[in-house]
């Protein structure tokens, strides 16, 4: 992980963009991280992982739901998929 100030980031923007391929770059302002530059592939994988985690949490919650279960055939009839 690399750290730089917002002023340095402005001055060395092209270099930072090159460095992002190998490590994340934290941009700080007044001692606080205000942004993190990451490789686009890493960003996409991270977003996918978060979405997968949300889906798993929703599936677990649905399993714990106390709603009555219906059969596949009943569901098809309810949705109008069976004549």
UniProtKB/TrEMBL annotation:
It comes from the Bacteria. Residues 64-83 are annotated as: Disordered. It holds the Pfam family PhdYeFM_antitox. Antitoxin component of a type II toxin-antitoxin (TA) system. Belongs to the phD/YefM antitoxin family. This is Antitoxin. It comes from Arthrobacter sulfonylureivorans.
